[in-house]
Amino acid sequence: MEEWIVKGCVLVLLLWNADLDIRRQEVSLKSFWIFGITGVGVNVWLSYQAWWEALGGVGVGVLLVAAAFLTGEAIGCGDGLLVCITGLYLGLWENISLLLAGTAACALVMAAGVILGRIRMKDRFPLVPFLLLAYVGRLLG
Hints:
This protein is mainly α. The protein is built from six helices and no strands. It has helices at residues 2-24, 29-46, 51-70, 77-90, 92-115, 128-140.
């Protein structure tokens, strides 16, 4: 049962923010508060992963937030915050796996768009829908 609670929380978080990222190129800070507090509670209540594993997952997002500041938001700060929250639920290695799969899918779509002349290299591209795609693929596969 605890596995479904964790999976459901991550899925709802990604669905909520993927929609916003596509429509408005933003993410919901409200969802970060809701799912962040819930993530801490779920970790304490269910004790399904070690505290260092959850902190490692959050650390992946912290590195993305730092990269956002260092690159002048070439990577969105909101994307980094979202990865912090998914790290609470998924832990270090699963969060790294999610981020790598999502960015790989995003890179493939962007490369195809550049080759076809539909997008330019400097265009902003939403990451959260690709994180959602990677997560759903992981749930189904």
